[in-house]
Design a protein that fits this description.
Helix content is 65%, strand content 2%. By secondary structure, the protein is an all-alpha fold. The chain has one domain. The longest helix is centred in the N-terminal third of the chain and has 29 residues. A two-stranded antiparallel ribbon has the order 1-2. It has 14 helices and two strands; from the N terminus they run αααααββααααααααα. Helix 2 runs antiparallel to helix 3, helix 3 runs antiparallel to helix 9 and helix 4 packs antiparallel against helix 10. It starts with a helix and ends in a 5-residue tail after the last helix.
Amino acid sequence: MLQYFLFPLHEAHSFFNIFKYITFRTFGAALTAVIICMIFGPGFIRLLQKKQIGQSVRDDGPQSHLSKKGTPTMGGGLILLGISVATLLWGDLGNKNIWIALLTTLGFGMIGYVDDYRKVVQKNSKGLSAKKKLFFQILIAGSVAGILYFFRETPPVLKFPFFKDWSLDLGLFYIPFAMFVIVGASNAVNLTDGLDGLAVGPTMITASTFLILAYCAGHVKIAEYLQIPYIPGSGELSVFLATVAASCLGFLWFNTYPAQVFMGDVGSLALGGALGVVSVITKNEFLLALCGGIFVMETLSVMAQVISFKMTGKRVFKMAPIHHHFELKGWAEPKVIVRFWIISILLAIVTLSTLKLR
């Protein structure tokens, strides 16, 4: 929005020419998002406390979690506020990718909000049923995938990292594949959100990594030099991803151990959806699985636990997702969180290395 109001002034004052550059607007968006979260965070938490929107805790979980009961949840609304305002202020609103990413994020956030509202406010322990939740996730992801397919500017191909000449034309199968990536990413982040700052840290790292990938994919010369697919308009997603990372950073101020607020499904489902849709637009689906390896590990641990228990009656882990397994083994919560962050940073470094290793 600022671009439309301020850039035309460059004819009289050359300084305003800076508003046409994605890099400047990316930094501006990041600062705006983190400031919004920091300023409105305390009041947002007090509002949740006043409304008695507190977290419920599983009795069969780690005993250290019992003290978290009643901690305000649904704090993901603060993240969405930072993302929305900063993106609308600094993004190019004529770019369709910005709108696809933002609306997808808000759509998944709305699903999470309904689920949280039913659980916490209406005291319905089941919240939004798994079938209904999955139905609405598929509905949103399917709509996005259809738009990306039928209004595409590049072929619906699947690119393989490390191999510059390897690609697979998915054709119409692109739609269910894109749906799987978006819905899978959303639920994977949701499963990871079980400790103070555990989900928000890797999300921030992954968003920052994809910020670089999106910028490279949207720049003709850089994409040609790195031999990666050029995706017209994807560079503008750098602005959106900056707001995601910065909003997570601002939220982390209040969510770090011991947390003053939890993001709830309204935050985790939205953030996962944001990462998923960006990976599809930039054709970096495999790199999302690599960079977001923590999310993949958490999801696989739940799948392994369920399958093993149903088939053999035995559990693979002391408790799933896997972060609870380490807690029950005696790891302190901050140790689990920081070590998972370290793994996420290492995976981000490997992900960025694929830009040259082709």
